[in-house]
Amino acid sequence: MGSAMEFSFGWPPLLAIGPIWLATPPPNEGMPAPRTVQASPLRTGRGFRRELSLAGRGLPAPPSTDHRCAARLRRFCWVEAAREGADIERRALMRGWVAKLTLEPLDPVRDAKLYQPLRAVESALEPVFSEVELAVDRTAQLVTGPRGSGKSTELLRLKKRFEEIGYQVAYIDLLAYVNRSTSVDIIEILIALALGVADVSDRAEAPSGESTQWRARFQDWFNRLVDSTSASLQIGPARAGFDLASLLRESPDFLTRLRQQLAFHIPRLHAEVDEFIRSVADDRVVPGGPGFVVIVDSLEKLRGTTSNNADVQASVERLFVHHGALLRFDAFHAIYTVPVHLKFTNPGALGLFNGSVRMVPILKVHDQNGADLEETIAELVELVGRRIKSELLLGDPELLRKIILASGGHIRDLLRIVREVINLAFGRRSSLPAEPSIVDQAIAQIARDLSQLSAEDADFLRLVARSRGTLKPSEEQIPRLARLLDQHLLLVHSNTDSGFALLAR
Description:
Elements: E1 5-6, E2 20-23, E3 36-39, H1 46-57, H2 67-100, H3 119-122, H4 126-134, E4 140-144, H5 151-164, E5 168-173, H6 186-205, H7 213-229, H8 244-250, H9 252-262, H10 266-284, E6 292-297, H11 309-322, E7 333-337, H12 341-345, E8 358-359, H13 374-385, H14 390-394, H15 397-407, H16 411-427, H17 436-450, H18 455-466, H19 478-486, E9 490-491, E10 501-504
Parallel strand pairs: 1-10, 4-7, 4-8, 5-6, 6-7
Antiparallel strand pairs: 2-3, 9-10
């Protein structure tokens, strides 16, 4: 494990462009000679000068016959127009930067120019691909990684890689079908799987959304399933068109009745889901094709409230520890994301899944002795460079290095700090490149957002620090461990299968 890392604080700089001087437009007859004014460093050229010139010449003549007064008024308006043009250009530039610094997963096609290969991250899911390709039977695999580590981006790239060799792939964001703040049960997870595959298949056939044939087939399937088990589940008058996804997410009463009705029919439910998805696969996979893959993302993002967080975490753990056999299917390969702490707390209890839990790690920017890892830092410099012109924003390359080290190698925190630099510089109308003090303040702001600690949290972090980054948490410590991982106060690196690296504030 690497030694503890320290967050420094600061604000990042803006654009490093010096002033460009433009001549004022030719004056009317009798006017004073042209002067020079400082105009936008971002928008120049003949068209822009002509635009401003016309704006100046189009002013109504002042009542005074003093030509010098009229000239001053025209020059003042031209300067104001130049300033306004500079503000518009500056806002457009910074808005474009913020858009490219998105915290959402990158689409492998749409966002290809923004993607920076990172060795430790890309290699993490290589075994997942190999497991599917080399398997004789259908597989079920588990993937994990801290939020913001690039896990979802890598899963989307894995989807594209499977598709390139002929697989049909359904990528499901489970948060569209379950409530992120309540406990989950295997019943709604199985139903969400079938519903998610139906929705993805409809979108694949008609990206604009006009096709609903698979959602309609799912509703017929679900109605038959419910009717054959009991008639007690009341869905409402619009039975043929009910929105089951919304009911699963938002109706505790419906969810309770669903669980009660299907509790004694779980094996049959599993078989029915397998058969329904087989019908989808048979329709979508070409004869002789390699098969169907379902990627289920976001299960690790389930988080309870202060009062029920421990119950929510325990329910997610039960899914994989106690119901592993129900998450394997004959019709398709399944890949699930799971909370990070499962890799360390119950590795032996996950034997029904293929291989070990595959970890997408946080990049290490320091070695065990605290020395900077230059190769990783260079990758992260390139990552930022693919999204913005950091030399314009920051000027001094050492400021970007400072931000990278402050992030601890956490990709999302790195992007958040750079975004905060842009926001601060824009709000202050600071010149570019931004001043080093802005970098310091941006780092400080992000660190404050992450570092709201209770006394018990602080004690736990000290415990991790004393263990030099490794820890065997007790069952009572698991909810706290999960929360601190979620807050980025504990970072998981790939140098050990059972270690945590502490970001010391």
